[in-house]
Amino acid sequence: MAMLKKYFIGLLGLCAIIALSAGCSTTYEYGDSGDVPVYSTGFGATDLQQVAAKMTTSLLTFPPIVDITNERRPVIVVEKVKNKTTQHIDTESVTDSIRTKLIRSGKFRFLDKSTDGQTISEIKRQQEQGLTKQSQAAQFGTQEAAEFILTANLTEIKQTKEEFWNEKKAVYYKFTMNLKNLKSGILEWSDEKEISKLKTDPRFGY
Amino acid sequence: MKKTKTLLSGVAILIALPLMIALSGCSSTSGIQGSSAIMDEGYGIQHSEYVIVNNPKVARGLQIVDIATQFVGNMLQADVTLVSKYSDTEAYQYKYAWFDIDGIEIDADGNAWFAFIMYGNETKTLRGVSPNPAAKQFKIHIRPSN
């Protein structure tokens, strides 16, 4: 019986080791881009999606903008987001998402300043190389002018609290976006999205 | 007798331990679903709404009490009002899906899950706006936060 007991305890230990080590190998898999987990208090993909959704919804449903977009599709130019946080954030990605959503709504048209260099060289090529029919060649000075400019700021406030068991960190983000009429200088629309992220670090254990 | 008891409890641990470890990472990703459609079948605009409960545990704590739909310009706007039936704070996620008049999903890849918190017995409205004017129906999926 004592032998059986020893054998049984050994089996129990082996089983526990196998069960515990089952998840210890490195794995790779595809995730859902619409369900990105939160691993840090940094400005992440989920925050980008939240900001883009909030700003698009707000702009598309703001009554004076609804009146304007019922009549025509205004032309907008997007400025880079002023990143006032201490983090390196690809803010162009945020404005790209907002711009894409607004274009796909069919309500706005956009000018893309980032490709102006390529546009100039292509127009020059069409006009100077002698390969393009001049009746069809693009001309300088024929592009549409933007009616509105979209500007944005991203700020953060960090707070930490030391406790005996834990260290708590709270990061508050505020993304503010404005739509300004370039001719009149009037701010036609503005909205904010606030995001709060919390981290609790236990001092003991993990 | 004592030895048999020890052996039996050992067997129970042997079965329960791997099972507990295997199940520790599992949580249901289903929840509740609200839906609304606007149809014009020649005799005026008709609304139809329904709520589907896929996870009774979520439905015990959260109830869809109102589904309001309106057009802002020509964009479909949805306002889904929820009430928490718990007195504790609970974390959830929601996602809107938009469909055209034929029931085909619009921009299926572009809808992300958004986190929200329901405080004890709180009432909250989740607003969504369709990605473009083609949307005539929507669904909202609500699930517990992981």
How would you describe this structure to a colleague?
- The complex is a heterodimer of chains A (206) and B (146).
- Chain A is α/β, with parallel strands linked by helices.
- Chain A has a domain at 42-115 and 143-206: 3-Layer(aba) Sandwich (Rossmann fold).
- Chain A is 35% helix and 27% strand.
- Chain A contains 5 helices and 6 strands; from the N terminus they run H-H-H-E-E-H-E-H-E-E-E.
- In chain A, strands 1, 2, 3, 4, 5 and 6 form a 6-stranded mixed β-sheet that branches.
- The longest helix of chain A has 20 residues, at 2-21.
- Chain B has 146 residues and is an alpha+beta fold.
- Chain B has one domain: Immunoglobulin-like, CATH 2.60.40.3230.
- Chain B has helices at residues 2-23, 56-61; strands spanning 32-40, 45-53, 62-72, 75-84, 90-99, 105-106, 114-118, 123-129, 137-144.
- In chain B, the strands form 2 sheets. In chain B, strands 1, 2, 5, 6, 7 and 9 form a 6-stranded antiparallel β-sheet that branches.
- The longest helix of chain B is centred in the first third of the chain and has 22 residues, at 2-23.
- Chain B is elongated.
- The termini of chain B are far apart.
- The chains are: A alpha/beta (206), B alpha+beta (146).
- At the A-B interface, helix 1, helix 2 and helix 3 of A face helix 1 and strand 8 of B.
Relevant terms:
heterodimer, A: 206 residues, Rossmann fold, elongated, B: 146 residues
Structural class of chain A: alpha/beta
Helix content of chain B: 10-25%
Task: Output the helix-strand order of chain B.
Answer: HEEHEEEEEEE
Query: Using DSSP, what is the number of strands of chain B?
Result: 9
Summarize the largest interface: chains and residue counts.
A-B, 34 and 33 residues
Shape assignment of chain B: elongated
How big a fraction of the residues of chain B is strand? Answer: over 45%
Count of DSSP H/I helices of chain A: 5
Low-confidence stretches of chain B: none
- Per CATH, the class of the domain at 42-115 and 143-206 in chain A reads Alpha Beta
- Bin the strand percentage of chain A: 25-35%
Global geometry of chain A = elongated
Question: How far is the N terminus from the C terminus of chain A?
Answer: 41 Å
**Radius of gyration of chain A, CA atoms, in whole angstroms:** 27 Å
CATH structural fold name of chain B: Immunoglobulin-like
Largest sheet of chain B: 6 strands, antiparallel
